[in-house]
Amino acid sequence: MTATTVVPHVVILGAGFGGLSAARELASAPVRVTLVDRHNYHLFQPLLYQVASAGLEPADIAYAVRGIFQRAPRVSVHAGEVTGVDWERRQLHFDDDSTLSFDYLIIAAGAVTATFGIPGVDEHAFGLKSVADAVALRSHVLGRFELADADRSAIDRGALTFVVVGGGPTGVELAGALAELFRTVLVKDYPSLDVDRARVVLVEATDTLLGAFHPSLREHALSELRARGVEVRLGTAVEKVTADEVQLSDGSAIATQTLVWAAGVRANPLADRLGVEQTRGGRIVVDEHLQVPGHPGVYAVGDIAASLDRAGNPLPQLAPVAMQGARHAARQIRRSLAGRPPVPFRYRDKGTMATIGRHAAVAQLPLGIRVRGFPAWLAWLFLHLLLLVGFRNRLSVLLNWAWSYITYDRAQRLIFAPEAYGGRRPPSAGPSATAR
Amino acid sequence: MTATTVVPHVVILGAGFGGLSAARELASAPVRVTLVDRHNYHLFQPLLYQVASAGLEPADIAYAVRGIFQRAPRVSVHAGEVTGVDWERRQLHFDDDSTLSFDYLIIAAGAVTATFGIPGVDEHAFGLKSVADAVALRSHVLGRFELADADRSAIDRGALTFVVVGGGPTGVELAGALAELFRTVLVKDYPSLDVDRARVVLVEATDTLLGAFHPSLREHALSELRARGVEVRLGTAVEKVTADEVQLSDGSAIATQTLVWAAGVRANPLADRLGVEQTRGGRIVVDEHLQVPGHPGVYAVGDIAASLDRAGNPLPQLAPVAMQGARHAARQIRRSLAGRPPVPFRYRDKGTMATIGRHAAVAQLPLGIRVRGFPAWLAWLFLHLLLLVGFRNRLSVLLNWAWSYITYDRAQRLIFAPEAYGGRRPPSAGPSATAR
């Protein structure tokens, strides 16, 4: 790109919910913006579990970043991975040895799966944070059914036992979606297999699911999951994972070839390479303006930052926090350029929701409003369609949802090579014949 | 599955155009049918090049085989790879050491990329026969543009030079689609890049493109491709391929990081493991009933078989030949069960077509009818929609086509394999993987 010395250069790290919001806010500002991401697309992570459970395709929830900013001449896109920063020169270093100078920096690189050092999780568990994760999990789950269909004894060895660890929204939604996939779709695909023997086990270390929700909604989610055949084990932690079983804190073990780790995230490791103060989970400490202390013009927002609420507690790692924080940081840059003082960030809680399956969801809205069941499910569908980027993706997701709803079918129950999507195949994964 | 001694068992190898046609024909016959494939989906290979050029998603052209036969209780599906056959016992051996007995066998395992031992092709070329091939090629092509955008000097080293080898329908369609992707979509994505420097070179060893078409259609395809900026090199063979250049038979060399091999296919290597007579390209010799000589009740159809026309020449390796041959073989099995004598196979040529791009295609129909330009393009679109399996895939492909047509956008320009930035294709994705 042609460098100009007059126009300030804002670099945004990460094209997730935060990075996109910041870039949009700055597209009309008197600055040059460079949006940096490892991938060339924005990924709508809240629907990744539907890719994993064969309801959607990756392209439905991914959107080319360059496409979003085609009509924003001052926003450019750079594909690459940041390896470090030279704070003196205000310069970023990339893995291909190139550099990029900035006047302002917004760090919005998100979070990654945290395994807390529990033995075997790194080697044997599936994550659910990337397209490669979701495609690998989908292929593996379907591969387990092929295996069991060819060899019934594999069921006794846990081929059809699927353990999801973590009772937050991701774990609840995935467990519900897998149970629905088995009971409504795969039961027809495998007529000679006793699909009722397929188990979905949801393991949660605390004594409740959806800890961030009101107790009445937690209860509803729990009973809806159980009604759909999900075995929920509360107050149970994972001690160790191997290729064919998981050992739990109550001394029991479950034979399984599939363990999904949705039990926690930590800040993107990029945060560790910046030489800035971090809190628990690696999150970057920021002041009330979302600025990184000691680094004027440098902001951190979203999952990678530890922004605080009015009571001084860290805000949850949710998309709305990232989006509001990013817009705030972008506005502080505009204020700074206009010579105006910064204003503190105030998060506006607009509620949170989770879906369990067909006609079942819970939604916690502001002013203590709580919705569950069919209306919450409809609201969930509508809101997620609205939040997706791009008319074409909305239309495609709507088409897929309508198709699944009407036909009880999942068009995406296809076993693709996870390697093609950048995924490694875990050592416990399926027969090479079906996975290739 | 429960074995019964009364009902004859028909095993079909391959869920391509041939295998599906045979299974459908036999679904209502008094037999048990087992359809065997490495993958759990039927792949509509003629549109793979659109996945590679970011126009469609794999799920649009793949359809779960179990879904197709959900309402056919006597058709079951087996995912696995055949390693050999015991003709005495009429038993197939699989890579997981399992076996499957048959009374009748239809071999419809198709073809794989043939590289003819040309140095470097196996290691450096992209194939276009599988989902993994297409996703890897798409990611690689888009990755080249990211590379060139970050470092202009990469263009001189061939980052934006894309060489397609083979002037048959696959090569012509891919070359046209890539040129269109660059000139209508990527030119907007990379405003600071001189996208006119991106070259598509189509190399063909004979002195004409689309050799199976009438000369007037060949001429039309050639001039349409050239009008769209494709450099066509006729009468030129590939001598050697390296990671950064291709050496041609005229002594010249082209600096390129992307070579697509669409210059030939050979029979699936399964044919080599059966101990049956083969012709050039490994195709299985069959008699006029499509039966394998010396093996009563064993048929070979489609790309893996050398079925002959009335003049004694081998029929082309095209989907209609596979579909008609498979239906014929299935009917011979029905006749055999009814105690009736076999009848010889007669291929009915219904024509062939190829598309060059927007509003441009050629179609050669029976009775010497030739169509080109806009009407041929419309016919091509309509026919391919019709041939796709499943209403949902048709709807999704139609949506994607309409979207691309109206907006000059390609929703699927997503880089899923991170290796794509690195320059080398993932080792699992090329021709060697498809030949497995």
How would you describe what is shown here?
- The structure is a homodimer of 436-residue chains.
- By secondary structure, the first copy, chain A, is α/β, with parallel strands linked by helices.
- Chain A has a domain at 9-113 and 266-337: FAD/NAD(P)-binding domain (3-Layer(bba) Sandwich), CATH 3.50.50.
- In chain A, 32% of the residues lie in helices and 22% in strands.
- In chain A, strands 5-2-1-9-21 form a five-stranded parallel β-sheet, with helices on one face. In chain A, strands 11-18-12-13-14 form a five-stranded parallel β-sheet.
- In chain A, strand 24 and strand 25 form a beta hairpin.
- The two termini of chain A are 41 Å apart.
- Chains A and B meet through strand 5, helix 6, helix 12 and helix 13 of A and strand 4, strand 5, helix 6 and helix 12 of B.
Provide the fold topology.
The structure is a homodimer of 436-residue chains.
Chain A: E1 9-13, H1 17-26, E2 32-37, E3 41-43, H2 48-52, H3 58-61, E4 62-64, H4 65-68, E5 75-79, E6 82-86, E7 91-94, E8 99-101, E9 104-107, E10 111-113, H5 121-124, E11 125-126, H6 131-150, H7 153-156, E12 161-165, H8 169-189, E13 199-203, H9 215-227, E14 230-233, E15 238-241, E16 245-248, E17 253-255, E18 258-261, E19 265-267, E20 284-285, E21 298-300, E22 305-306, H10 319-337, E23 352-357, E24 360-364, E25 370-372, H11 374-387, H12 391-407, H13 432-435
Parallel strand pairs in A: 1-2, 1-9, 2-5, 9-21, 11-18, 12-13, 12-18, 13-14, 20-22
Antiparallel strand pairs in A: 3-4, 6-7, 7-8, 10-19, 15-16, 16-17, 23-24, 24-25
Helix pairs in contact in A: 1-10
